[in-house]
Amino acid sequence: MSIEARLQELGIELPQAAAPVASYVPVVVQSNFAHVSGQLPFVGGELVTGRLGENVSLDEGMAAARACGLMILAQLKAAGVPLDKVQRVVKLGAFVNSTADFVDQPKVANGASELMFDVFGEAGRHARAAVGVPSLPLDAAVEVDAIIALSSE
User: Fold this and answer.
1) Where would I find the beta strands (DSSP E) of the chain?
2) Phi/psi class of residue 38: alpha, beta or left (left: φ > 0; alpha: ψ in -120 to 50)?
3) How far apart are CA 113 and CA 135, in angstroms?
4) How, if at all, do strands 127-133 and 86-97 pair?
5) pTM for the whole thing?
6) pLDDT of the chain along its 153 residues, tens only?
7) Which end of the chain is more exposed for a tag (fewer CB within 10 A), N or C?
8) Which domains does the chain have, with CATH numbers?
């Protein structure tokens, strides 16, 4: 089954790829790896803002991380990388805008991790970092970046 068919089966429609907010490119493909810059969470066209442990719930944080994962896929497509070329999701880095006493960053990051498994199956299982940070660009609640291995075919 193609990844596009899998997305349809899951009822997933990818968002429009967001434009960079600073001096960088969203995706760099080098030596069969796609390095995807940190993506912010847009749900219903709106940026999810705020801080976990303060004014964003765990469920909202997980949904925000999932939205970052969807944006990663959208950025790959916008860069001309067919999703069927994804050989493996190698690593995700999840940055969670959180208070000093919030300790569920890994649970928040699961929103993106579980999406990758749902879409790519075993090839979606990956290494990961999930860290709390005191702030993110535009007051985003979560930011996720990715390293994706691509087939050479």
Assistant:
1) 27-30, 33-39, 42-43, 46-47, 86-97, 127-133, 142-150
2) beta
3) 22
4) parallel
5) 0.97
6) 899 999 999 999 999 999 998 999 999 999 999 999 999 999 988 999 999 999 999 999 999 999 999 999 999 999 999 999 999 999 999 999 999 999 999 999 999 999 999 999 999 999 999 999 999 999 999 999 999 999 987
7) C
8) 26-150 (3.30.1330.40)
